[in-house]
Amino acid sequence: MQIRMTVLGPHVPRGARGSSVDVLVTAPSGTPLSAVSVGLADAVAAAAGGAGAGIPAGSAVPLFAGERALDPDRTVLGEPPLTDGAVLSLGAPGVPGEHAEAPVRLLIAAGPDAGGVHLLHGGQVRIGRSGEAEVPLDDPDVSRLHCAVTVAEDGRASVADLGSTNGTTVDGVPVGERPVPLRPGALLRIGESVLRLEGADTLEHAQTPDSAPPADGGPEPYAAPARRGFWSRRFGTAPSEAAELPRESRPPADPAEAGRWPDPAEVLLAALGGARHSSRDTGHRDALSVRLGTADTHGAPEPLVVSLREAGSLGLAGPRPRLTGLARSVLAQLATLDATDDLELVLLAADRARPLADRLADWSWLGWLPQLRPARGQDCRLLTAYDREQASARLGELLRRLDGDGGGGPAHTVVVVDGDVGPAELRDAVARLGLRGPAAGIHLLCLAETPSATPSSPLTASYETAVADTPGFAECGAVALLSGDVASFLRVLWRPATADPATGESGTAYGTGRAWLDGPGSDPRATPGGDWFAAAVAEGRETPGRPGVVDAVSAAWAERLARALAPLRAPADGEGAGRAPGELPASVRLLDELGLARATPTALTARWADRTRALAVFGAGPRGPLEADLTAEGTQPVFVEGAAGSGKTELLRSLAASLAASERPDRLQLVLIDGGGSERGEGLRVCTDLPHVSTYLPANDPLRMREFAQSLAGELKRRTELLAASRGVPGQRGGGELEPPPSNTLRLRPQSAQAVQSAPDARDVRDARMAQRLLAAQPRLVVIVDDYDALIAPALGSPARPAAGSVVRALDTIARDGGRLAVDLIAATGRPEQTAGASARTRAELLVRLGAAPDVPPGRGELHRPGKSPVPFQAGRVTGRIPRTATARPTVVPLEWERMGAPPTTRPLRELGNGPTDLALLASALQRAAQSAGADVTPVLA
Ligand SMILES: Nc1ncnc2c1ncn2[C@@H]1O[C@H](COP(=O)(O)OP(=O)(O)OP(=O)(O)O)[C@@H](O)[C@H]1O
């Protein structure tokens, strides 16, 4: 399990360098905070430049979530408040959280510093540009101390101007220095900002019956309505048909539409509400639609909306930081309002013209969003690119989808292209995505740094600069250009829609857009570049006809929103909805699939006590570990087919290891056979340290092979006779009352271990109950055979040749009768044509095909069962060498956002070629567990 969180250092002013660190915690689920608290403290100390940062030494490092002290032994990683995106403070309580009981909230609904939600507890708050203001507002047209809002004890609010330069209005009526009432819902305008009060009664009203408590229940004490409630309040049930969005958004005439385009503050509240899904799924009429700002229509703000589905791609141009503020608002809306599982976000921020630190400051907040996690098997930890290599990887993944390699995964992808991407081939790749992407559900959000459009720098200049500097900008079907002295205005322009030459219809914009974008010349008006734009400006075709005020939000706002969304995970697939094979990991550790990342003797003893079964774990399946209980009916023989190098031997080792982890060695024994002898490398010999292995037979020596075959046949016979005896000899007391075993298994429990220690020859057992007890006490025997084909058809001159037949015959008996006798067979073949007629194959209940598809990693396979559809899986790996630290204890490593887009193989957890293998770790832990359990092994076979 991996959790990303932020740890704030003690007594360091917020924002000071090194005062906080983002970390990635890797630990088995259920790990208490105490196991990582020292690691967290070390990470903070390292970020602050070593010791002396006021961090208490030793293990007793107090940690807080907000003001709340966390009990290190009772707070568990992965559970609230220790979920993805959490913020902890070290040594001292953190900043107190806002209190949900506040009677009134002040929302910054629109403007260049939109999104703020301020809880008013009563008394006066001053609003202004100054740091002195209780509600600071980064709006250049707002005075330093602009106006004051006072909440009386009865919850009623009033507002007064504080002698501002540009004045204050409430619902269009100017406000002087004498306080006037400010009712919930009334619009308070100062500078370019719109503020709105929500009273306690509005809040209660907003709570709908399906509101869920916040997902983290932790340090964010907002009383926001849950997201589901939020949407149902506005839309009722989600419209399922995609209706066309009006190209020019009009003020909603229908009051039911009033909340259709939530302002940034409402978006934040929706995110903090923490419900799992928004109802804006792919079929929703407003899916992928975003509000960019507001135009003033008779004093009422009218949303400026662009649908990415209609525009294909959207270009934003203007000076920073307003440009980034607008882009954040757009992305926050998509991440919050569109269904999490339907949307994927990708960031390309590899423009070397800007220092990496600036790019990280702009974008690291995105890293917390669940929509940036790779869900289509992309080779990275986040869908981000901060350098050319990562940009090339991201673009490659996206372009492959244009070529039909869709895979499973989210329906829509929005790619943020922040400035240039570098070499010509990458620029071309972005342009291709801009042209063909929308038809495949891939939309660009192109950001270009340009001067603000002013009388001295016309719109066309902004557009030309944007097209020249940011690839993909020329392909955008709609562009929003920031304008005005301080870039607090914006203009939205659309490319002219043209009829589809094929049908003559003007369908959705990207449909028609594609027609003319794909081939310049297919429409005479559609010349690439700025001609359409110049024409639009000349014709005054901006939409709407006058500038609006931009919605821009701060980095802190965006990070807060993203952290709130971080713990949202895709829900489990519905029954029968398997994951596409491409989504399986390229490699998995068996220990992770076993839930035994820390293979300690205690954990193993607990596992043995917990499951007295023979659990064979194949690896990672579409919905968690793929496993089979060999004591259940219809699970053996297990037969594995696969070409050389497909991972057969490793799979057999994993099966052996998982069986050993599921049952005590005195109750389950492993018999291992390398059918190709010992010349073929390590084979199954590496498993012989597992205390369960009673026999290892490399097929080299005919003498040993014959002895083995005899002893195996003898054991099978003994068990067959015991079984017959246990079913009772007619006429004998008690015999007739016996029930047959419930399945093909011997599940009977031994009543006394002593009774079976002196196990007499089965023929001497005359009493059925005694026979039953004896049978139940027989250890289960699992025979695992690699290179079975080499036994069936030994090479000419092979030393195994004279004796192979006797071994094969004994194995045939197991394939036929083993289930009843608690003897199981697992066999693998590299030459399926040689083994097609073998009983193990013809009777196989579980058939594994490894490497069935081309170009799959070793260990990728499918499990076939008669009459069922095959299940894809990635076999567990046990002979990988992983640094001991990774397996033995949880780790805390600083998060390097700029490296999250690189292939995960470069992370410190990769196999290093030193340290013990997982198999060796497991074997030694099993030995110790067996010792302390007193589980002596008396090999069943001679
Ligand atoms: N599940 C796995 N995950 C990662 N790597 C694997 C996995 N299984 C096998 N490999 C790697 O693939 C290579 C081949 O594996 P293995 O020897 O198990 O294949 P095989 O099918 O038994 O081949 P052969 O028939 O030649 O013996 C080895 O280098 C192994 O480390």
Please provide a written account of the structure:
There is one protein chain. With 942 residues, this protein is of the alpha/beta class. 27% of the residues lie in helices and 22% in strands. It has four domains: 2-90, Ubiquitin-like (UB roll) (Roll); 104-199, Sandwich (Tumour Suppressor Smad4); 281-497 and 535-566, P-loop containing nucleotide triphosphate hydrolases (Rossmann fold, 3-Layer(aba) Sandwich); 588-707 and 767-812 and 822-881 and 917-929, P-loop containing nucleotide triphosphate hydrolases (Rossmann fold), CATH 3.40.50. It contains 25 helices and 38 strands. The strands form five sheets. Strands 27, 28, 29, 30, 31, 32, 33, 34, 35, 36 and 37 form an eleven-stranded mixed sheet that branches. A ten-stranded mixed sheet has the order 18-17-26-25-24-19-23-22-20-21. Strands 4-3-5-1-2-38 form a six-stranded mixed sheet, covered by helices on one side. Helix 7 links the parallel strand 20 (343-348) and strand 21.
Gyration radius, in Å: 34 Å
The CATH superfamily name of the largest domain is P-loop containing nucleotide triphosphate hydrolases
Report the helical percentage.
25-40%
Shape by Cα distribution: elongated
At the first level of CATH, what is the class of the largest domain? Alpha Beta
Uncertain runs are 200-255, 498-530, 542-546, 570-582, 729-760, 883-888, 905-912
Q: Under the CATH scheme, which architecture of the largest domain would be assigned?
A: 3-Layer(aba) Sandwich
- Span between termini: 44 Å
Stated plainly, the CATH topology of the largest domain is called Rossmann fold
Region (Disordered): 205-225, 240-260, 725-747, 855-876
Domain NACHT: 636-672
Domain FHA: 125-175
Domain FtsK: 623-861
